[in-house]
Amino acid sequence: MRLLTPPRGMKSSGKTSGDACKLVMLGSAGVGKSALVVRYLTKRFIWEYDPTLEYAYRHQTQVDEELANLEILDTAGLDDSPCYESHLKWGDGFMIVYSVNDRRSFDEVKVIKRTLDEIRKSRNVSCVIVGNKSDLDHDRRVTTAEGEGLAAEHACAFFETSACDGGAEIQEAFHELYREVRRRKILENKSRRRSSAAQVKNVLGKMFTKINSG
Length: 214
Description:
about 210 residues; alpha/beta; Rossmann fold; six-stranded mixed β-sheet; about 20% strand
């Protein structure tokens, strides 16, 4: 993996802090993961890039008037890579991409999500599903309704877009994934605080019981 090394002609953008939101791009090779990331970061479409390489980017942006520090890992789509499991453990949120003109890549989404759930030991993983290459509607193999149904099945937000055309859905997909990660972290922090408070209450209760019984 080339950490923070962009494709030719690009620079990694912005700075991140220790609380950066770590997003991972997943999906079969050739579905346009790199093109989506490049379009999001630069508003440009890059035709040529090496689909076998992995890149990571740092990016600072505004999401709902909140400063967001992002680290985006663009994987090569190789689930047999020695780094694949570590990528799934590293990320906070995951964008699973398929191509609307590639039925196999759509079927692969279920496999990726199942693997992700198994490795993370939880079905409560922050994900969005993106159907890319909607500009190739003449060669479509997956309907919008099927994409929506798959996302609903896995309780994920769904977006259909084209990295080539650069629709507004691309930015919204990244930002919605960030929001989902933030919401989940807030809920987890509240849960931990409630658990800690309950433990303290239990300890104090035992202490008072012991004192009273003595």
